[in-house]
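Q: Hi! First time asking for a complex rather than a single chain. Here are the components, and I think there are two in total. Is that enough to go on?
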Amino acid sequence: MQCKIVPSVCSYCGTGCGILFEVIDGKINSTLPLKTHPVNEGKLCIKGWNLHEHVNSFMRLKKPLVKTSGRFITTEWDEAIGLTADRFSEIIQKYGPDSVGVLVSAKLTNEENYLAQKFARAVIGTNNVDHCARL
Amino acid sequence: MAGLAAAFGSGAMTNAIAEIEDAGCIFVIGSNTTACHPLISRRIFRAKEKGARLIVADPRNIQLSRFADVAVQQRLGSDVALLNGMMHIIIKNGWQAKDYIADRTEDYEQLEKTVAAYTPERVQTITGVAPADLKRMAKLYATSQPGSLLYAMGITQHTTGVDNVKSCCNLAMLCGYVGVYGGGVNPLRGQNNVQGACDMGGLPDVFPGYQKVSDPEVVEKFSKAWDRKLSFKPGLTITDMVPAMLAGKLKGLLIIGENPKLSDPDWNHLSHALKNLEFLVVQELFLSETAQVADVVLAAASSAEKEGTFTNTERRCMRIHKAIEPIGQSLPDWEIIRRLSTAMGYKMDYSDPEEIFDEMTALTKSYAGMNYQRLGIDGLQWPCPDHDHPGTPYLHKHQFTRGKGKFHAIEYQDPAELPDEQYPYFLTTGRMFAHFHTGTMTRVSPHLDIEQTTGYVSINPKDAGSLGVKQGDMLVLSSRRGRMEAPARLSESVEPGTLFLPIHFGENPTNVLTNAEAVDPLAKIPEFKVSAVKVEKLTA
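A: Yes, that's all I need. Here is the structure of the assembled complex.
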């Protein structure tokens, strides 16, 4: 058996509690509060204590899906990315960059949010980028 | 955040979470803190143990109200009148911080003139709060120094959301509580990285670090850094994107980690809009309500499966670490965007998130002093402009980010929709302790699902009695937009004439009832917190 403890931050509300993932043989077994963390000082709420459960859910998507004649078919990454890139490029060419929008989210890391707005602005060429803080 | 930025020059929680413990008085308005931010409510209880006074103003009788020195239930959407009423009393008794107002703020005279008209009696007719309670609130807040004001969506999700926030800022500045340890105006962010998403430029009018897209120098800087000619034209907000989709102007949409079908203010409206798109792509962990209607769904890895940083509500940027390999063939969102961008002819060749972080800090002053080594476990609070800077626990210490703190004279306005003969009930929406936002994460978590498996509607036992409704009976709620069903939960937490719906449950979507047309003119936040409905018992 291999056991490791990995420090991280809870991804539910905006409080940002410090957590430890207990990983046994490559699977997260539990979520524990980080005792020395300046935000939560070793405490967690019911959502935090169960953070790993959504990670382990059998409902997780495991491969990209492409809708063909109204039904989702699993595909390989190269195909899904290629198709997405082609369709966006077509729309941009036909209607201009402002005909495309990007919704980023509070669930993404800073790095991913940075990259997503860079994608909208530099790659698509539009400032149509927003997120769900209003909602 | 537009209200905070207008008053102080910076749209973020002014003080650190830990400082709440050392406040003299805590004023919670429009935040069900024990349910939505439990580890912040812990600081409130610690503060109480140390002798702090607690004021709670919420249209519902929330858990925190039971521990308050003064708790009031203002009528839905009447916050501006309530806050103006408190300021009226503070000024009348001379409790305001006169030197602070003179040295550090501007436009005070207009505020004084405006709030003079908000006598306790007038405020009572608007808010339903008794003059004696209003006086106790004003006195406790102004005289138990320093006062820490906490708010959440109960303040912002209104047509007058920006006015509400500005009024909170007015009250705090009036008492000299901004820029001091233990005080401040503290918006509690609902999602783990809302602050970060805003900081990173996930907004139609700003680049990372709130640098304006309309500023030629800024556009020049980013054009150079990214080697592309960039647009000066501010983009569409999420609330403007929906009509643009309906009008056929917005044709393609990429949604990353969001479920707007449940979080958007108007389900019917949005469903039509999404159908009108030529191409919809969703990056998600699960096949959410929104992912189900997409053309392509890209399987994303969870935050336990990648490196990166989150910035919490107190501006603390902290690292997350990869605990396990991505489930199945899912990929971290940054890797998906990297591949998509490269496939569209803009090569991105980052080998890990640290390279992205370093590129971002080089372009963003408030994060400039941060790197992965410095963040460690505790993280750093922005602004952190250079590598020797220790970070900033509270803002506006010697002066406001914008120079002087600005008072805004605000008049009370009614919500967009008030109950009438046809739709006689107030409806408000919110969250419950075991679930999170649209439920995509918590409802697949067995220990959270078991706490509450279905949606419900809270109704006062008096109203239930007059409708002949028992606990668990199915009710039909309808508004001018649509109708939905949910089982009744009899509860004194809502006043007679008011109903409450939690937002987490896709099969009982609250947003078929709420009003997408009613948005704050500046912040474009929809009025989720107030609509008018009628309610009937479902007969089989």
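A: The radius of gyration of chain B is 24 Å. Let me know if you'd like any chain examined more closely.
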